[in-house]
Structure formats: structure tokens, C-alpha cells
């Protein structure tokens, strides 16, 4: 996936009110940009980090610039725009990168389902294979002393717990259910549930796996080299739980 407009660098001053960040542009101007991430973003944006943003031409937007990527001092790249997870996951399925999710003739997104008024991120269907419900999660939490081990979630997530219950119900009703982690931090090589941040979510992951829900984690390749930059899911990495 290419980003919707040219990526431009800036230096992060601070993030605040969840959806806003102040940055210094390459020309020295200080501006406020939009941050499309509702999570804690631990380690994904420290003052002084280089960030990359896109610019919208929509005149109705209050903040035209959107924070897309963080580049850490060690070269790790992080996509902080969680909306990109669904986009790159859909693309990876359609291009055949995710081998476990091939062989379906229809792909739909944001389909209403479940007992708790949810929308499934991706629904695959086929007359012979049946339906496959895929919940996509963006994973980007990497702690400095954790040896390339990443975690999800980065804060307590009641919404994520609901989605796991829905997947368990889907599986119990005879359909295929998948939890797909789009790992959007290039420093993460292994992914684990963040039991230390949300023990209920961690236990639900184990319950879901025991019920037959499939869990896959795929790493990202993130580049700013071409004019609009690029982010792709590339290969499966280990998902570990206990």
C-alpha cells in the first residue's frame, strides 16, 4: 500500500488530547497535526523523534496533516495510523501474501455481525469453504528491554475483548474465525498478548484459541524512499502465549 500523498518529515514536539500532536516542520515552522491513534502509543512517539506525515487536500479538514509513521533513532519504523492495518491486511490477502487465507471467492469489509453489535473487519466467503470472519488488530508496542518481543494491546481494551467474544461465538456457530495481527513496528519479531496491561484480554485470547479461533501475526515492511512511501505485510512471525 502506498500512502495517499507524499510523505514529509517533521520532528515531534508532543502528542496530546489523543488525536493531536505538535511538530516542527523541516522549515522550522511549528504546527499541529492529526494523530489517528486512540491507544497509549507507548514507545511510538517520544519528543524529538522523526515523524512522517501526509497532507490532505480536503478543505473541510481542520488539520490537513496526518501523522503516519515514526522513525526511531535505531532505524525502526512504526506506522502509528491504525487505520492502515485493515488496508494492508486486505491487500495482503488479495495478493496472496497471507497463505492461510486463500481460496475464497468474495472479500467484504466492515460487515455487521455478532451478538454485541459488531462489524467484522474482513469477511471471506466461498460456496464450498463457507465463511471466514477476520478481526484485524494493529500491534506496535515494543518495550526497549524486551528483545524484539512486541505486545498487544498497549492499554486495556474493552473493545478488543468484545471482538474476541464475537470470534468465539462465530467459531462455535460453525464458521471459521481468525484474529490477524498486522504488526506495524519493524523492530517486533515475536508477538505476545500484553498480560501485564490487560489480563482479561490475554485470558480471552487463550480461550479463543482453545475454541478453535486461528491467530496469525504478520510483520510489516515500511519505507519512505519512494515519493508516497509504502507499507506492506510481508511475512508471518511467531505469536506466543501462555
CATH topology of the largest domain: Trna Endonuclease, Chain: A, domain 1
Largest beta-sheet characterization? 9 strands, mixed
Helix/strand order: EEEEEEHEEEEEHEEHEE
Give the C-level CATH assignment of the largest domain. Answer: Alpha Beta
* Low-confidence runs of at least 5 consecutive residues: none
Oligomer: single chain
| Helix content estimate | 10-25%
In short:
The chain is built from three helices and 15 strands. The longest helix has 15 residues, at 158-172. The protein folds into two domains: 8-79, OB fold (Dihydrolipoamide Acetyltransferase, E2P) (Beta Barrel), CATH 2.40.50; 83-239, Trna Endonuclease, Chain: A, domain 1.
Outline the structure in words:
The structure is a single chain. This protein is of the alpha/beta class and 242 residues long. Helix content is 17%, strand content 42%. It has helices at 83-94, 158-172, 199-211; strands at 8-16, 20-25, 30-35, 50-55, 65-71, 77-79, 106-113, 118-126, 130-139, 141-142, 149-152, 176-183, 190-193, 214-223, 230-239. Helix 2 packs parallel to helix 3.
Key words describing this protein structure:
2 domains; Trna Endonuclease, Chain: A, domain 1; 42% strand; 242 residues; 17% helix; OB fold (Dihydrolipoamide Acetyltransferase, E2P); alpha/beta; 15 strands
Topology of helices and strands:
Layout: E1 8-16, E2 20-25, E3 30-35, E4 50-55, E5 65-71, E6 77-79, H1 83-94, E7 106-113, E8 118-126, E9 130-139, E10 141-142, E11 149-152, H2 158-172, E12 176-183, E13 190-193, H3 199-211, E14 214-223, E15 230-239
Parallel strand pairs: 3-5, 9-12, 11-13, 12-14, 13-15
Antiparallel strand pairs: 1-2, 1-4, 2-3, 4-5, 5-6, 7-8, 8-9, 10-11, 14-15
Amino acid at each position: 500500500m502506498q500512502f495517499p500523498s507524499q510523505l514529509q518529515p517533521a520532528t515531534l514536539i508532543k502528542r496530546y488530547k489523543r488525536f493531536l500532536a505538535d511538530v516542527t516542520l523541516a522549515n522550522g515552522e511549528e504546527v499541529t497535526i492529526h494523530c489517528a491513534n486512540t491507544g497509549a502509543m507507548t514507545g511510538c512517539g517520544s519528543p524529538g523523534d522523526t515523524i512522517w506525515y501526509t497532507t490532505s487536500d480536503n478543505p473541510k479538514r481542520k488539520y490537513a496533516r496526518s501523522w503516519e509513521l515514526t522513525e526511531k533513532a535505531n532505524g525502526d519504523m512504526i506506522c502509528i495510523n491504525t487505520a492502515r492495518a485493515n488496508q494492508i491486511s486486505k491487500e495482503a490477502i488479495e495478493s496472496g501474501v497471507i497463505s492461510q487465507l486463500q481460496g475464497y471467492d468474495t472479500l467484504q469489509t466492515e460487515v455487521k455481525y455478532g451478538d454485541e453489535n459488531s462489524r467484522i473487519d474482513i469477511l471471506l466467503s466461498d460456496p464450498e469453504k463457507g465463511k471466514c470472519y477476520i478481526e484485524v488488530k494493529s500491534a506496535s508496542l515494543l518495550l526497549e528491554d524486551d528483545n524484539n518481543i512486541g505486545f498487544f494491546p498497549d492499554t486495556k481494551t474493552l473493545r478488543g475483548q468484545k471482538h474476541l467474544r464475537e470470534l468465539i461465538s462465530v467459531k462455535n456457530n460453525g464458521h471459521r474465525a481468525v484474529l490477524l495481527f498486522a504488526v506495524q513496528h519493524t523492530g517486533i519479531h515475536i508477538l505476545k498478548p500484553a498480560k501485564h496491561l490487560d489480563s482479561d484480554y490475554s485470558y480471552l485470547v487463550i480461550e479463543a484459541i482453545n475454541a478453535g479461533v486461528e491467530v496469525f501475526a504478520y510483520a510489516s515492511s515500511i519505507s519512505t524512499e519512494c515519493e508516497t512511501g509504502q507499507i506492506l505485510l510481508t511475512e508471518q512471525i511467531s505469536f506466543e502465549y501462555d
